[in-house]
Design goal:
Number of helices: 8
Order of helices and strands: HHHHEHHEEHEEHEE
Number of strands: 7
Shape: elongated
């Protein structure tokens, strides 16, 4: 029997035979008429032990077979037997482990798909300015190029290099946020000072575009100053790019007992209804986006805000133009 090949079962069986033999001999010495009864009882116990052990090992074998099937066939689900007992508990725990492993496997597959898509988008975004760089460099190689045209090309090259540098910097920030390695600090900052700092890099471009930046800030905000300045700056940059010359960009910041809110609105044409559901998606470029847009500034802004227990929403204001509202909550939402 295969069962007797198990050393544990064989050892217990030998002990039971020895005890049974000793019991039969002892009853034989006392009274022969009880000898047969003792032999029958001992034999019954031995048979009962062998049968129960065989049934238990059959269940273990079935469980092993099911686990082996799971390892080689993911379409099969584990364990339908939910009887009471230790084996049933073992089956239940293995089933939980199987479900957890399958969930993790599915998440890994989804991460791989996102990584492939992300790399494809990155390569496409970098390839576009690189193509322009190669074309401009080929123009510079022409011997009959005028000094004025050479300066124009050098200026264009400088602008393209700045775009690539900005793109790589933002992509690195996004990858750090995706990996969960960014530790946001909790700082209480004066709202007016914070908005001024966030808008400082765009003051000159806004002035060049003939736009008017209106700031109405009161109260304070509790967030990571550096990262949140990045988020607000990206939204301001988006509004600046979609506001016509002579238009205005308004920043209104307030604080109450529940949250600090920053509302940024512009006097542009607003956001297309088709673009609104996708405005914060990575690498999404709306219908009115120009060729210099990468479609990652707003995606980064959303990641920064949501990672700090905040919310961000884009909509069209009743007066016309786009309206972005950010809320940084003081408690868990």
């Amino acid at each position: 029997m295969k069962l007797l090949r198990n050393r544990e079962v064989f050892s217990v069986l030998m002990i039971m035979l020895i005890i049974s033999g000793a019991a039969v001999l002892y009853t034989h010495s006392l009274d022969r008429k009880y000898c047969l009864l003792t032999l029958i009882l001992c034999s019954a116990f031995i048979v009962l032990y062998l049968v129960s052990t065989a049934l238990r090992y059959r269940k273990l074998s079935s469980l092993t077979s099911e686990i082996n099937s799971i390892l080689h066939d993911e379409s099969r689900m584990l364990i339908n037997d939910f009887n009471e007992g230790e084996l049933a508990l073992l089956r239940a725990e293995i089933r939980k482990m199987t479900v957890r492993l399958r969930e993790q496997s599915q998440l890994l597959k989804e991460d791989k798909i996102r990584l492939v898509d992300f790399l494809a988008d990155v390569s496409h975004q970098i390839r576009t300015p690189l193509t322009s760089l190669n074309l401009l460099v080929s123009f510079l190689e022409k011997p009959d190029l005028s000094p004025e045209r050479r300066r124009e090309i050098a200026h264009e090259l400088s602008g393209l290099l700045r775009r690539i540098d900005w793109l790589i910097t933002v992509l690195l920030k996004i990858s750090r946020l995706d990996a969960g390695v960014v530790k946001f600090r909790s700082e209480t900052i004066d709202m007016n000072e914070f908005i001024s700092k966030a808008s400082a890099p765009l003051q000159i471009p806004i002035e060049i575009h003939g736009q008017n930046l209106i700031i109405d800030a009161d109260g304070s905000i509790t967030a990571d100053e550096s990262w949140t300045c990045e988020a607000v700056g990206n939204i301001l940059k988006n509004c600046m790019e979609h506001t016509p010359e002579g238009g205005s960009i308004t920043v209104k910041a307030t604080e109450n007992s529940l949250y600090s809110e920053i509302i940024i609105s512009d006097s542009g044409s607003g956001i297309s209804e088709d673009d609104l559901p996708h405005i914060f998606e990575r690498f999404y470029k709306g219908k009115d986006s120009d060729d210099s847009s990468f479609g990652i500034g707003l995606a980064l802004a959303r990641m920064i805000v949501t990672e700090q227990n905040g919310t961000i929403k884009a909509e069209n204001s009743a007066e016309g133009g786009a309206r972005f509202s950010m809320r940084f909550y003081k408690g868990t939402v």
